[in-house]
Amino acid sequence: MCELFALNAEGPVNTNAYLREFFSHSVNHPHGWGISWRDGDPFDDASVTLVREGRRAIDSDLNWKILGSPIEKSHVLAHIRYATGTDMAERNCHPFRTVDMSGRQWTLIHNGILFNEGLTFPYEGRTEGETDSERMAAFLTDVLDEALLRGAEPTFDTRFEALTGAVTQLANRNRVNIILDDGEYTYVHTNTSKCTLFYHSFTDERGGRAIVVSTTCLGGHAEEEEWKPVPANRLIALRDGRLVRTSAPHGYRFCETILELQRKMGVRPEDFVA
After folding, report:
1. Which of 26, 46, 188, 225 is deepest in the core (most CB within 10 A)?
2. Per residue in 137-168, pLDDT tens?
3. Which pTM does this prediction carry?
4. Across the strands, what pairs with 52?
5. In order of start, what are the domains of the chain with their CATH numbers?
């Protein structure tokens, strides 16, 4: 599977040490990498920097160049890819970027499998790449737009409720570890039976609050006990380095044993389109 990393902070935080460790895991996740960072206006497309490559991060001169300079931002997403059915190409690398009808800029990273693709199948052939992750990003953007078209106010509550409903539907029979960021809030969801997403809250050197989310606990032994499992089966929202809202839990816990059985039953690699 892929690995995810995210930062949500009150102010700019240097994440280079975490990112170097994170991207070193590309030894085992060799099929592409990506990173995005941003500060400021959620509606300003110029505030979003996004870089992706369809190659192993540790072999990438561009990755080394990026990490050679301080990345001091309040919102960061990063992804390393383990492809399971689609090409090793930039178009299939995360983060994926979308814009809703209000002009709000979104970035998404995903680690999971969609066995039940009823909600995302209509987007096949309408995205740049071939992954179910990108189709999921398109679906979620349409859900946000639909809420506005129905007359809802463009508020955080509207977005949170729309995303909660959509993610709950997506979690039915699917493995859905996703992180969405709009430059103001970071939305996180996991529904695996074994913990596959952790978070670490801390205060930066300026005294600001920050939260890092990652597939694996980063920072070595010194920080190992600081990491906690992300609450499963619910959507959580982060802002300014704080947990600001949690949805009611849904019942769609994805059992990893099911995945193992699917593989033993000969499910085709093409069905695992991450």
Report:
1. 188
2. 999 999 999 999 999 999 999 999 999 999 99
3. 0.94
4. 34
5. 3-271 (3.60.20.10)
